[in-house]
Amino acid sequence: MAVASGRQQRLLVYISGHGYGHVAQVAPVLNQLARGQPNLALVVCSMVAESFLRSRIHAPFNYERRGADFGMLMHSALEVDVAASIAAYLDFHADWGARVEAEAAWIAGQQADAVLSNVAYLPLAAASSLGIPALAMCSLNWADILQHYVADPILDPVQQQMRAAYASARGFLRIEPAMKMPWLDCHAVGPVADIAMDSRTDILQATGLEEGRQYKLVLVGMGGISMQVNPAHFPRLPHVHWLLPQAWMQGIERADFHAQEPLQMHFSTLLASSDLVLTKPGYGTFVEAACHGVPVLYVPRDGWPEQDCLVSWLSSHGRCLQVSAKQLASGDIADSLLAMLNASRPGRVMPRGNREAAEWIALQLGLGSLESIHGRNGGRG
Fold it and tell me: Which PANTHER family does this UniProt record tie to the protein (predicted)?
């Protein structure tokens, strides 16, 4: 990536707003990549709130509230709205050439030297049309996700444009665990996750729980996609306390229920401090749970094709157990919950993909290896 002498290299990073898993994949890699590199300027383009991005991305960056993908439109965190998604893709591709030209003009106006996308394909096509490096990274791609739900020939032109856009990238960083993508030029790396501090003592103090007691903390979250659950039927179990989204607790008063938001801690910190997490299959929560040695109770998503590889991987590298959406709604989860809480904690997975991904991106952008970069700046890898 040739740039004028003395000028910072400007990398546009597109992060999908389709759940927080995409931020969970990108943030640790950007933190690793930017460490000790004063000549790399990051511009993050996303519909995810700037405050949340800054809570996860610790490297300096400029923020552009800009969306370039929508993934699949959702009825809830568990159910895809297939009909609305079809209409949205047909509209998005109605004048594809003009859309690519407009995005390319915007990228050029940003004086970008390269683009990294997780996992919008529009900026890949736009960057490639400008002749600047375009890189992709994710555990999935929207072309395969869409094809899983819709085989209608009406979307054939859309699929051709999506796949051409992804294929135009210099490479696709496939992070473990991931869907198979044999048609893409993939470079595989290990799991990517942030490692958070265990703040259990602070949580017990903030919730008024006696520190010396053997409490079990159960964290509940659905990965950044809106979903309303009534927890009134959740089981009351000795020494078990629930950390819930505040919106779920409206009108419910129970001594074993505690809202997450007043704790003012990142979800990753809450996860690292908990004994169990109740969630849906999603990259961020599944991999962070494995990397912190926290077992997972999960509610399956409605045919979401990525979930099979996530569940298989977590079954091999951590501990997880499925409960149905019906069980979640009725609160019939006590036996499953106790089985997980009473089992031995799984070992911790090392997020080796943080460095592996950053190393690959640095080499693709002509920054050299992280070893030489960090050594040159007196930093540590």
Answer: GALACTOKINASE, SLR1395 PROTEIN
Of 32, 76, 97, 22, which Cα lies nearest the Cα of 58? 32
CA–CA dist 325, 280 (Å, integer):
10
Mean pLDDT, range 91-103, rounded to an integer: 98
Sign for the CA dihedral angle at 231, 197, 261, 304 comes to: negative
Please give the single-letter amino acid code of residue 245.
P
**Cβ neighbours of residue 142 closer than 8 Å, sequence gap 6 or more:** 69, 71, 72, 119, 120, 121, 162
* CATH tag, 200-342: 3.40.50.2000
**Cα dihedral across residues 306, 72, 296, 273: positive or negative:** positive
Cis check for the bond before 177: say yes or no (omega within 30 of 0): yes
Where in the chain are all domains bearing CATH 3.40.50.2000? 9-192+352-376, 200-342
The CA distances from residue 302 to 21, 77, 305, in Å, are 17, 9, 9
Q: Do 153 and 189 contact (CB within 8 A), yes or no?
A: no
| Predicted structure pTM score | 0.93
Question: 319 and 295 in contact (C-beta within 8 Å)?
Answer: yes
Question: What integer is the mean pLDDT of 61-87?
Answer: 94
